[in-house]
């Protein structure tokens, strides 16, 4: 056509809510009023991962049973995404006596609505701060032998003892 042609789209912008296939129709109109249309399916993608920051390394004390749970809130400082964060998961959710003495790396994974992920890792120091439980006999007698002496051991006096971490 030798006339001026103007074009228009029925969809001129897309957003995160459009991720996937979007049907776009192009209309071309010449100066005589003649029109032609064609449609095309375009794919809208989000390939930008979230941004995540942590609260830094931390120390946790085991409870009296020798365990401690850990939550996302203890690790996560903040996160953001150009679309939407849909999940926050930890690779380790609980700590125990076997974790005492050696820092444990805990990784937080943040996933957005398009499946893009970001991770952050903190080092968690675990401490056993619960004293052992000891129950003693209420009475114990010992006989002095021919040498005028007698031996007493802790096992003679203890009825029971326990400790969550051994």
Explain what you see.
There is one protein chain. The protein has 166 residues and is mainly beta. Helix content is 5%, strand content 48%. It contains two helices and 13 strands, in the order E-E-E-E-E-E-H-E-E-E-E-E-E-H-E. It has helices at 72-75, 154-157, and strands at 5-9, 20-30, 35-44, 51-54, 58-61, 67-69, 76-80, 85-90, 94-96, 104-112, 117-127, 133-136, 158-162. The strands form five sheets. A four-stranded mixed sheet has the order 5-11-10-8. The chain has a three-stranded antiparallel sheet with strand order 1-2-3, with no helix packed on it. Strand 10 (104-112) and strand 11 form a beta hairpin. The radius of gyration is 35 Å and the shape is rod-shaped. The mean pLDDT is 93.
The outline comes out as rod-shaped
The beta-strand count equals 13
Q: SSE string, helix = H, strand = E?
A: EEEEEEHEEEEEEHE
Fraction of residues in helices? under 10%
Structure summary:
By secondary structure, the protein is mainly β. It contains two helices and 13 strands.
Task: Describe the structure using short key phrases.
single chain; mainly beta; 4-stranded mixed beta sheet; 3-stranded antiparallel beta sheet; rod-shaped
Ordered list of secondary-structure elements with their pairings:
Layout: E1 5-9, E2 20-30, E3 35-44, E4 51-54, E5 58-61, E6 67-69, H1 72-75, E7 76-80, E8 85-90, E9 94-96, E10 104-112, E11 117-127, E12 133-136, H2 154-157, E13 158-162
Parallel strand pairs: 5-11
Antiparallel strand pairs: 1-2, 2-3, 4-7, 6-9, 8-10, 10-11, 12-13
């Amino acid at each position: 056509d030798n006339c001026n042609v103007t074009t228009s789209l029925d969809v001129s912008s897309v957003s995160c809510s459009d991720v996937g296939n979007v049907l776009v129709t192009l209309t071309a109109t010449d100066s005589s009023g003649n029109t032609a249309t064609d449609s095309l399916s375009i794919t809208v993608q989000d390939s930008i991962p979230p941004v995540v920051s942590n609260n830094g390394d931390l120390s946790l004390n085991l409870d009296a049973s020798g365990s401690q749970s850990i939550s996302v809130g203890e690790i996560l400082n903040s996160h953001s995404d150009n679309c939407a964060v849909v999940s926050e998961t930890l690779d380790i959710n609980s700590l125990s006596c076997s974790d005492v003495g050696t820092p444990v790396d805990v990784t937080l994974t943040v996933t957005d609505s398009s499946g893009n992920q970001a991770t952050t890792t903190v080092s968690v120091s675990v401490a056993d701060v619960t004293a052992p439980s000891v129950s003693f006999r209420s009475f114990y007698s010992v006989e002095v032998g021919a040498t005028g002496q007698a031996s007493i051991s802790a096992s003679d006096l203890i009825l029971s003892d326990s400790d969550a971490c051994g």
